[in-house]
Specification:
alpha+beta, 5-stranded antiparallel sheet, 250 residues, 5 strands
Amino acid sequence: MQMQGDWEVLLNGDPQEIRQLCTWGHSINYFRLWGGVDDWNDCPNDDFRFNSNLFEGQTQEGVWQITYELLSLFNGASTLLEREPYKLSIYKILLEGGELARQEKRNIPGMLTKPAVSSQAWADDLRKALGTSQKISLMMLAAEHEDIYLFLKFLDQDSSWITYYKILDTLETWERRKGLKAFRSKRKEKKFTCSANNFSLNGFDARHGFQEMMQQPAQVSMTIDEGHQFITGLVKDYLQQAHPQFVKFR
């Protein structure tokens, strides 16, 4: 059976961010990061790698799909915190030092399960993540909480009015389930809705197709950047209310 240490995922991404994550990431088994140092020449490099305890006992196909999913969740967390983050992607995957043939991403129909470790080991990993990286901690929480999982997956999709309206629909469903309400002004929500729905403003990126409707005045419309800010603000406020023991945004 293949163990966690047999696998290495080489990463593309922002070298500065990954280097910072590597200073502590080697201690989190769910997303163990290392690299950025050329030991032979004793200098920095951009060779960054990770593996996960989710890889244990997996096939090559399984590791490819788990890796795609982990990076999707990480990138969704990045988009929640930044407007246009430099997303992580797979450069290549090694098994016992040998490069694997690339496999295409498939749609996984549900959440990743937690790794087959004790509840104490999982809690220790999560505690380390909460103390060091908001992105890693959100990625781990997505393995336990469906609402967090859905928000991160939607946020990893292309920035568009359609995506943002899906997030609003999802948010309203979870608000009803949990009996809470993320803060938003009625004026901004109306501007968001008008902008997202209006084909005359946003063309094929609009939530609706071509319709006979009046052009909305500029004061009741949003730019896509404003739409992103509105939606991510709602998600952050919801998460802080729904998961106060884990989530706190500055």
